[in-house]
Amino acid sequence: MKRIITATVQNRGGVLNRITGMLHKRQFNIDSISVGSSEIEGISKMTFVVEVSDRQKLEQLTKQLNKQIDVIKVSDITEKAIVARELALIKVGSSSQSRSEIQGIIQPFRASIIDVSRDSLAIQVTGKPDKVDALITLLRPYGIKELTRTGVTAFLRGQQPQVSEMNAFTV
Amino acid sequence: MRVEAKQEVEGTNKVMTGADLLIESLVAEGVDTIFGYPGGAVLPIYDAIYRSEAPFEHVLFRHEQGSIHAAEGYARVTGKPGVVLATSGPGATNLITGIADAMMDSLPLVVFTGQVARGVIGTDAFQESDILGITTPITKYNYQVKQIDDLPRIISEAFHIATTGRPGPVVVDIPKDISADLTTGDFDNHFDLPGYQPTEKPNPLQIVKLAEALGRAKRPVILAGAGVLFADAAEELKEFAERYDLPVATTLLGLGSYPGTGSQALGMAGMHGTYAANMAIYESDLLINIGARFDDRLTGNLEHFAIHAKVAHIDIDPAEIGKNIKTDIPVVADAKEALLALLSADITQPDITAWNEKIASNQQAFPLWYERSDQLLSPQWLLEQIYKETSGKAIVTTDVGQHQMWAAQFYAFDKPNRWVTSGGLGTMGFGFPAAVGAQLACPDDTVVAVVGDGGFQMTFQELAVVRERNLSVKVLIVNNEALGMVKQWQGSFYEGRYSESLFGFNPDFVKLADSFGVRGMQITKEADLPAALAEAFAYDGPVVIDCRVVKQTAVYPMIAPGKGIHEMIGVTK
Ligand SMILES: Cc1ncc(C[n+]2csc(CCOP(=O)(O)OP(=O)(O)O)c2C)c(N)n1
User: Fold this and answer.
1) Would you say domain A2-76 falls under CATH 3.40.50.720?
2) Which CATH class is domain A84-155?
3) If you count DSSP H runs as helices and E runs as strands, how many of each does chain B have, helices first?
4) What pTM did the predictor assign?
């Protein structure tokens, strides 16, 4: 099962190395990790999308993360009301003929063209990973020359439903 | 000298080097012994040691690995952190085995390594190595000091992290220009570690659950691990086990947490554990693990481990609970706190007379056994003789292999912290230097290093240290002219193809000792042993005793790899 885990960490030297090293050593499958500063100085926020086989593995993962000296808080937010977003930059081959066609494809995704050259277009898309996946699939026939994704970053919505309901979000 | 100079300038303009600041901080932490080896990147620190009049001792080993294993031995018998100092590059990399060993066995160490100057870090400078990168997976935490004024805070954090919660090694990497630089001013060693707050007190609800489960249990058993020793909870464990008449099995590292000759003792459980201990775990309906981590050498095949039991697990490290074994009653706590809570809990005496009778009959019917020989020494008998000669009161360190298992089986530890062995990493070369560290920590105790002829050849250079300091360590070589444990496995599982496990040559250990100015003895007949041991233990100084043992002897009983805890072989002759 895929889970979204967030961790609040003290921004000390080597923290990313320590955490990714632990995940690797303990053979956890990581789909993506994103890291950046948080609202508090000196504190970073990490978002992991992980694939775990069962509850026991999941519990181990959160415990091993929590055990790290620099990790202040770990939350599994998969089943909460959350906003989760990923950014992708996609460079596709395009001629003057295909350009408007591509524009038509990306429009419903609210993606934008951020760079144009004679034979390519750079597209920026933000959204849930499945939306990003869908766009990539549609663009593939045009020839993807370069692709880079940031990995998911996420947090809880301001309002949580009273009864915890399974989140419709698929990662 | 240094101390006076400092007092002179105090109040005016306190000027000191980073190295002086380091020494001052160590003294403030109550450090009495540093296990180290000098080199270029730590010259400023060694200069500060030279100038310091602070009341601590630096012990110069002959290899960094020796120094760190000694620090582990020191930490194991005292409960205090072992402090290690080595230079950058090769000095630091020579420490790796010891750091990994301490991590696996949860030993508190604070390891200082020199580093090249800040300006050249990352340029592959002479004797630069990325010691933070290398040690990240094998340390509880590690630091590189980036600014001189951070030193006091980092050092207090390092000692705090190494010694609290589940103990472990912490590395502090100090660039040379930081230890050489001058600094003035007042330092703040106050720290805040918001992500590090070990839970010591148990959750009362879980204690109630455990108390209820115990009251209803028909076949309870305690498994005691090193967590009991780290928590200084041997007294409480004894009281708890004896109050409710509960049998106690111990892990390899937990030996001594409950008296080896105590009324409830089943001895060691696991791969070479006793039949009674392993069967008690296999058949139990309530397994109370106190401070053990369900290592695979203990559990055997997980599919057969304690399959009928409700499992309660008391551990200060939450990540150990449920890691290998599904746990019904998790108790995240310091073992002492948990035992104190259990001692004051309301528990109905379980009806376990039949269970205890069954265990007693297992003990009667299937004790540890061995064969005597009229040639050479029987190794198990040898360990029994050591036990007798030292009245069971020695500090015993071991190396890794057959002799280690025989020592665990045949030397009963009635007191905690007298047993020093490398369990998790299984590090050959550990035993002798660890004994040196234990002897430095406890100068008045009898310290015996039980080693194999293989492992002793990995670190015997520390004979120079015992000679230099006239430390009374008694080195007992269980000499089978082979890598005995490897040979045993090749005999059992590889049809006797003894690939590279038989020594074609061994040094003359008596002459070797002699070359270090250390007394050497060789024993080839059982009849000669008692007198030799009496002489060796009466002698005030180090002795190496080369005991020639029967070469074919195997360690039994044994849970073969992949087998369940109830599937022991070699239970009887
Ligand atoms: C550093 C290291 N290398 C290799 C091993 C694998 N190993 C485990 S036991 C053993 C044999 C030990 O032989 P010896 O020291 O003579 O002790 P014995 O088993 O004969 O008592 C070996 C090679 C190890 N544990 N540690």
Assistant:
1) no
2) alpha beta
3) 24, 22
4) 0.95
